[in-house]
Amino acid sequence: GNAPPGVDPEAFSWFQAVDADHSGYISVKELKQALVNSNWSTFNDETCTLMINMFDKSRSGRIDVYGFSALLRFIQQWRSLFQQYDRDQSGSISFNELQQAFTQMGYNLSPQFSQLLLARYGQRSSNPSIQLDRFIHICMQLQSTTDAFREKDTALLGNVRLSYEDFLTMVVTRMI
């Protein structure tokens, strides 16, 4: 069949290929099987779940062809940004590239924090780096938690005072 109105024909074609069970929806499992990093590793489960949840209007844990089409545009935008920060064109983002990316995105984060992210999300090696899927994951979480922090930091001082439960509420409600 033809692509529905407002859906890119290429996205529609890919949707049909990814929808392995022909349900008319893409699940996290199907999405994971469809997306690969530059090193041919599949996208991480957590990242796929975050992205499905972002485009799942019905809160069913899966997306239709419209959500999938929007998700592909979203990933392409992140891929372009990722490639811009991957200065050595290695297909992954190193510590220095991650630091530069954060700075250019307007985040004033310490090298220790970037090192922590590399240890948590990077590939285990002597020179850890971040693949596209984890870069998307980190940036989505960073944006979400930054938004939550800014809601509390109304004077834009860069610090807030809040109770432990307020902190937990802030984190849990921002987990996409």
UniProtKB/TrEMBL annotation:
Keywords: Calcium, Cytoplasm, Cytoplasmic vesicle, Endoplasmic reticulum, Membrane, Metal-binding, Repeat. It is a peripheral membrane protein. Its main location: membrane. GO terms for biological process: COPII vesicle coating. Residues 6-41, 73-108 form the EF-hand domain. GO terms for molecular function: calcium ion binding; calcium-dependent protein binding. GO terms for cellular component: endoplasmic reticulum; ER to Golgi transport vesicle membrane. Pfam families: EF-hand_6, EF-hand_7. The keyword Magnesium does not apply. It comes from the Eukaryota. It is found in: Cytoplasmic vesicle, COPII-coated vesicle membrane; Endoplasmic reticulum. Gene3D superfamilies: EF-hand. SMART domains: EFh (SM00054). This is Peflin. The gene is Pef1.
